[in-house]
Write a structure and sequence with these properties.
By secondary structure, the protein is mostly beta strands. The protein contains 6 helices and 29 strands. The protein has a 4-stranded antiparallel sheet, with no helix packed on it. A 4-stranded antiparallel sheet has the order 8-9-10-11, with no helix packed on it. It has a 4-stranded antiparallel sheet with strand order 12-13-14-15, with no helix packed on it. Helix 4 runs antiparallel to helix 6. Bound molecules: fe (ii) ion.
């Protein structure tokens, strides 16, 4: 909410970019670079205080804002760049905007009773426990552009105007939230997604047709706990499921604990399911307990399914238990100078994220685990050339986290691109 994290206003009409450093190569393709991120409407409601206790806004709760740079050529072949930004006009945005003030109560971080009161009041006022944030990702499927956050379904947007065109839910056939990172399957071109819930069904997989018009498959994986799993992987034949011990627990919330907590004693496993499989056909591989939000890529290699992701020993989200010193917890977590080992929660460095590989043998059912980047650098927000999604790839790109700066300011600070 401060400095370069502070919310910005919509600028209105598309604006020509007149100040440009360097040159754009002549054969660079025309197109649009668009990104999404939380940008709290009216600055957001920073905290609540009542007889139920306190709650405070987290950075994930801001409404999504799209920022687009359009790369076009004029009739003379000269580059013409323009910029536009616009809020994602979801159903809850349309309810909130006319109020002219932040309206949804923060409902992620705070005293248990304050969170439950926020759920109730938000539901009574707006028909949803929290706003549909739509602030996490932008993706393309079958020539259309969608924006999404994992507490609701994607919104289709017009890339020229950034105007939202409504919910993408196949006339209600998909009645679950939707991961921020769906994956296009190699060869078939289908889009594989999943949705997580705090109540049953906890984890549902979906397969969308290559033309984006229908839901080809839907399967409840019958989890016995609700996990915040952020990304799903694909290979040629399989869907890859991350099940780590970052758990939503309504019973814990009612008894005074946090709704979401990383349980470092809890189990972690990776599931491999046939594309149109169900709960009974997932092959589970139990792995060393860890937290993996983002997957670089997955692919098949002989009998093995290879999974590469950014793995840490605890979760950066939702942060320390309510009441603990937040700055100290983040500062120690990002301090990589201290040893990263099984007791890392006590020794600092627990938020260190390395590129990690699991090789899952479908015949022997064995798992081989290894770090590909060691303990010198911490990286996250991975990306590859999307043409290689689900296939063996050679290159990946990610942000390197600056240990010293992050530890000093208690927030993940990028240093460069790896
Ligand atoms: Fe993500």
């Amino acid at each position: 909410m401060q400095k370069n994290f502070a919310p910005v206003e919509e600028i209105g009409e598309q604006t020509v970019v007149t100040c440009c450093e360097g040159n754009i190569p002549i054969n660079f393709p025309q197109g649009v670079f668009v990104r999404n991120g939380p940008n709290p409407l009216f600055g957001g409601l920073k905290s609540t205080e009542s007889i139920f206790g306190r709650s405070s806004q987290t950075w994930v709760e801001g409404e999504g804002m799209l920022h687009a740079i359009y790369f076009e050529k004029d009739s003379g072949g000269n580059w013409l760049l323009s910029y536009k930004n616009r809020y994602v006009e979801s159903d809850t945005f349309k309810l909130e905007k006319p109020q002219n003030k932040p309206s949804f109560l923060p409902a992620v971080e705070g005293d248990s009773w304050a969170i439950m009161a926020a759920y109730l009041l938000n539901t009574l006022r707006y028909g949803a426990v929290n706003k549909y944030m739509s602030n996490t990702n932008v993706f393309e499927h079958a020539g259309k552009t969608y924006v999404v956050a994992e507490n609701y379904v994607p919104q289709e947007v017009d890339i020229a105007t950034l105007e939202a065109r409504g919910n993408w839910n196949f006339d209600g056939d998909w009645d679950q939230p939707f991961t921020s990172h769906p994956k296009r399957a190699p060869v078939s071109g289908e889009l594989v997604t999943m949705g997580i819930n705090a109540s049953r069904p906890y984890y549902v997989v979906g397969v969308i047709s290559a033309d984006g018009k229908k839901l080809n498959h839907k399967a409840d994986l019958e989890f016995d706990r609700s996990v915040l799993s952020h990304e799903i992987g694909v290979t040629h034949r399989y869907n890859v499921i991350i099940d780590h011990p970052l758990v939503f627990d309504m019973k814990r919330l009612v008894s005074g604990g946090p709704l979401l907590k990383y349980d470092k004693e809890g189990y972690a496993r990776i599931g491999v399911m046939p594309r149109y499989g169900d709960a009974s056909s997932v092959r589970w591989f139990y792995i060393d307990s860890s937290c993996t939000f983002h997957i670089f890529n997955c692919f098949e290699d002989g009998d093995e399914v290879v999974v590469r992701g950014c793995r840490a020993l605890t979760s950066v989200f939702p942060g320390p238990d309510w009441g603990m010193n937040k700055f100290d917890w983040f500062s120690r977590g990002f301090n990589f100078r201290e040893p990263v080992d099984a007791n890392a929660n006590e020794h600092g460095g627990y938020l260190f994220t390395c590129v990690y590989e699991w090789r899952l043998n479908m015949e022997t059912r064995e798992v081989q685990e290894s770090s590909l980047t060691g303990t010198e650098i911490s990286v996250d927000f991975p990306f590859i050339n999307a043409d290689f999604t689900g296939l063996r790839n050679m290159y990946g790109y990610a942000q390197v986290i600056n240990s010293k700066s992050s530890s000093e300011c208690g927030n993940a600070m990028p240093v460069s691109t790896l």
